[in-house]
Amino acid sequence: MYKIVVLGEGGIGKTTLLEVIRKNVMDLRTVQMTIGVQFHEIQVEYEDENIIFQVWDFGGQPQFKKMGVFDKFSQGSDGALFCFDLSDYETLLTIPDWVELAPYCKSENVAKILIGTKADLDEDTDENLIQEYVEKFKFHHFMRTSSISKQNINNVFVKMAEIIFSLKK
Fold it and tell me: What beta strand segments (E) does 8-161 contain?
C-alpha cells in the first residue's frame, strides 16, 4: 500500500476528483467539503499488478491550514498530488505555500504530480508559471484533469504508480 497526500486550496475539486476516480460519481453536487482530512483507498492496475493507494485528502480552507498538521500527516508519503483550479489563477499562486506546508514531500524520493483541475472550464492560468513550478519544486509530472468531462481521471493514479515504481528502482 502506498500513501498519497492530496493538497491544494479549498473548493478546487480535490475531493470531487477522488470521488469520481473511486466511485464514478455522476452528480458532483453530492460531494461535500473535506473537513480536516479524509481517507480514501484507490486501486489501479499497473504492470499487471493491483496497486493500492491510501489517499489522505486534506481540506484546503484557511482554518485547516492553521491547524499545523500537514507536515506531520505528510510524513511517510510515497507520493503527493498538489492541486490547483485551472479556471482560478489565484489557486495556482498558492502552490508554493502548499509545498511549504508539507516539507516531507519535498524529498526527491516522493512522487509529486502537479494537477490542474476543472480543465472543462475556461482556463485562467499561466503556462510559464506552471513550468516554472514543475522545475522549481521538482514535480515529476503536470496533468490537467476534469471531473465533469473525465479528462485524465483514470490516468492520475496510474501515472502516480509509474513514478513511484521508477523512484524505487
Answer: 37-46, 49-58, 79-85, 111-117, 141-144
What is the rounded distance in angstroms from the CA atom of residue 62 to the CA atom of residue 98?
12
Considering the entire predicted model, what is its pTM?
A: 0.87
State whether CATH 2.10.25.10 applies to domain 2-148. no
The C-alpha cell at 128 is 510559464
Each residue's pLDDT tens digit, 91-129:
999 999 999 888 788 888 999 999 999 999 988 889 999
Contact status, residue 54 vs residue 160, Cβ threshold 8 Å: no
Residue 164 host element (H or E): helix 156-168
Cα distances (Å, whole numbers) of residue 30 to 20, 56, 150: 11, 20, 17
Give dist(CA 55, CA 46) in Å, integer.
17
Please return the burial class of 39, using the count of CB atoms within 10 Å of its CB with bins 0-12, 13-18 and 19+. Answer: exposed
